[in-house]
Amino acid sequence: MKNLKIAIQKSGRLNEKSVQLLKNCGLNFENYKSSLITTVSNFPLEILFLRDDDIPEYVQDGIADLGIVGENVIVETEANVRYLQRLGFGKCSLKIAVPSHSDAKEPADLNGKAIATSYPTILKKFLDEQSITADIRIISGSVEISPALELSDAIFDIVSTGGTLRSNGLVPFADVMTSEAILIGKNGIENNPVVCELIQRIQSVLRAAETKYVVLNVERSSLADIITLLPGVKSPTIVPLAEENWVAVHTVIAEQDFWDKINKLKAAGAQGIVVMPVEKIII
Ligand code: PRT
Ligand code: ZN
Q1: C-alpha to C-alpha distance for 127 and 133, rounded to whole angstroms
Q2: Measured from the CA of 70, which atom of ligand 1 is nearest?
Q3: Domains of the chain: residue spans and CATH
Q4: DSSP 3-state assignment of 14?
Q5: Among 6, 35, 140, 229, which residue's Cβ finds the most Cβ atoms within 10 Å?
Q6: Which pLDDT score, from 0 to 100, does residue 232 have?
Q7: Cα of 73 from ligand 1 centre, angstroms
Q8: Long-range contacts, stretch 237-242, CB < 8 angstroms, 24+ apart
Q9: What separation in Å is there between the alpha carbon of 13 and the centre of ligand 1?
Q10: Which of 17-31, 40-54, 248-262 has the lowest mean pLDDT?
């Protein structure tokens, strides 16, 4: 059977995390900066390294079977591909921003204004939905400086920390969409057993990344209180300690509840709490 192909970004913000995700899924491959294609030695997959803008269409046209790319690029290219898995990295928002001295107060104030962007399709759809007629100026890079150069009255671009907007004297004006990296596939590929296996591995890595393995000691008399605080994968493992009436409790805790849970566990009598990263969770 022919190997499947997955397209990932060659260099840029999504490259490192895409490579790391595939490696965390147990895939062995060489990652030479100069090569455009590499073969995975222990899984029927080849990896293509491409500009992110090309990935959705390559997948739509079946040149690659799978791809990892920002949702903003998928929506902008209007490629007909299947969303297989949200990946939780490359998170950002796409916003309209205006100079801090702008008199624009609400979306309707953009009527007749010039908006610079590298994402004309997404912007046009938003403006149409809001019944706004603006002049969309397509710029391929450094969109943020266009108001200062009097090339536009506003911009529409990716924002993550907001630092670039601030340093160019711009303020967010309207939120249009949020985005993160997505595993996409050509239509129909979702039934391929190799793809199902890869998705399963990716999900186990993502689940583990959101989870910490926790071991703590507690006196038996406090055990019932501690257990009510611990959801665990199924139920916590309880191991007797050499010291009578004491046990060690092993469990996993969701990263987002971590500090809240740890403080409650301490208050309920937990001692010697050890926290470890989790590599994979297979359910
Ligand atoms: O060479 P290639 O075409 O492959 O890459 P690229 O230069 O087009 O894209 P790249 O590597 O910059 O970004 C790839 C993807 O990362 C984007 O399509 C988004 O899905 C995602 N992403 C996440 C971001 C950001 N965060 C981000 N902050 N893409 C770009 N930015 C830029 C933004 O354009 C702005 O200039 O960072 C600046 C803003 O950052 P803050 O933190 O100052 O707000
Ligand atoms: Zn690009």
Answers
A1: 7
A2: 20
A3: 4-90+180-208 (3.40.190.10), 92-178 (3.40.190.10), 211-277 (3.30.70.120)
A4: coil
A5: 6
A6: 60
A7: 10
A8: 241/217
A9: 6
A10: 248-262
